[in-house]
């Protein structure tokens, strides 16, 4: 995992969009906006992931394959829609099994985009209410484990005035601004 400020330059979303020189973001700075990260080597990952899942109450999981081959004609549309800025009313938990990609999360209160480059062995938890988006990178494929508690509530609420007023969004902002 490598996190850094997104350069906001126009161009293909799959490019790194890293400033020159890069403006890195630490794991602690991610923690301050309630984004959690663990590194769990893919070889023998099961036991460690099981332990974290048990501790945090993630009872269920499935695997998602995001690639041109997997999504076929829907690929371009999916890639565009994953990249719409949105939030969920539940955590988004991903463990990367193979491939690479980018999660972009909004920093509070700056509203800057932080880009998180993910690779196999990364376990990332985005809290409910955080604005974020996802894209593949130029390798065009990623395979990830999605972990969830009960029924997954992965409905994306695109950023809007209405979503700004969503109680999960308000709750998130309260959580990350206390003590800031
Ligand atoms: Fe999402």
Automatic annotation (TrEMBL):
Reaction(s) the record says it catalyses: 1,2-dihydroxy-5-(methylsulfanyl)pent-1-en-3-one + O2 = 3-(methylsulfanyl)propanoate + CO + formate + 2 H(+); 1,2-dihydroxy-5-(methylsulfanyl)pent-1-en-3-one + O2 = 4-methylsulfanyl-2-oxobutanoate + formate + 2 H(+)
Co-factor note (free text): Binds either 1 Fe or Ni cation per monomer. Iron-binding promotes an acireductone dioxygenase reaction producing 2-keto-4-methylthiobutyrate, while nickel-binding promotes an acireductone dioxygenase reaction producing 3-(methylsulfanyl)propanoate.
Gene Ontology CC terms: cytoplasm; nucleus
Pfam families, alphabetized: ARD
The keyword Membrane is assigned to this record: no
Subcellular location: Cytoplasm; Nucleus
Cofactors, names only: Fe(2+); Ni(2+)
MF GO annotations: acireductone dioxygenase (Ni2+-requiring) activity; acireductone dioxygenase [iron(II)-requiring] activity; iron ion binding; nickel cation binding
This protein's pathway: Amino-acid biosynthesis; L-methionine biosynthesis via salvage pathway; L-methionine from S-methyl-5-thio-alpha-D-ribose 1-phosphate: step 5/6
Top-level division of the source organism's lineage: Eukaryota
Keyword Cell membrane attributed: no
This protein's UniProt keywords: Amino-acid biosynthesis, Cytoplasm, Dioxygenase, Iron, Metal-binding, Methionine biosynthesis, Nickel, Nucleus, Oxidoreductase
Binding site for Ni(2+): 86, 88, 92, 132
Binding residues annotated for Fe(2+), in chain numbering: 86, 88, 92, 132
Biological process, per Gene Ontology: L-methionine salvage from methylthioadenosine
Entry EC no(s): 1.13.11.54, 1.13.11.53
Principal localisation: cytoplasm
Family label: Belongs to the acireductone dioxygenase (ARD) family.
Function summary: Catalyzes 2 different reactions between oxygen and the acireductone 1,2-dihydroxy-3-keto-5-methylthiopentene (DHK-MTPene) depending upon the metal bound in the active site. Fe-containing acireductone dioxygenase (Fe-ARD) produces formate and 2-keto-4-methylthiobutyrate (KMTB), the alpha-ketoacid precursor of methionine in the methionine recycle pathway. Ni-containing acireductone dioxygenase (Ni-ARD) produces methylthiopropionate, carbon monoxide and formate, and does not lie on the methionine recycle pathway.
Protein name, per record: Acireductone dioxygenase
Organism lineage string: Eukaryota, Fungi, Dikarya, Basidiomycota, Agaricomycotina
């Amino acid at each position: 995992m490598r996190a850094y400020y997104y350069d906001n330059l126009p161009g293909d979303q799959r490019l790194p969009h890293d400033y020159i020189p890069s403006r890195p973001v630490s794991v602690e700075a991610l923690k301050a906006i309630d984004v959690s990260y663990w590194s769990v080597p893919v070889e023998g990952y099961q036991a460690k992931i099981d332990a974290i899942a048990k501790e945090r109450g993630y009872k269920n999981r499935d695997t998602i394959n995001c690639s041109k081959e997997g999504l076929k004609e829907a690929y371009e549309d999916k890639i565009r829609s994953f990249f719409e800025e949105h939030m969920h009313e539940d955590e988004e938990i991903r463990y990367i099994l193979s491939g690479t990609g980018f999660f972009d999360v909004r920093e509070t209160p700056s509203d800057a985009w932080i880009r998180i480059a993910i690779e196999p062995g990364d376990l990332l938890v985005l809290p409910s209410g955080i604005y974020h988006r996802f894209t593949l990178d130029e390798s065009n494929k990623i395979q990830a484990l999605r972990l969830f508690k009960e029924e997954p509530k992965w409905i994306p609420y695109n950023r809007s005035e209405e979503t700004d007023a969503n109680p999960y969004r308000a709750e998130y902002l309260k959580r990350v601004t206390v003590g800031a």
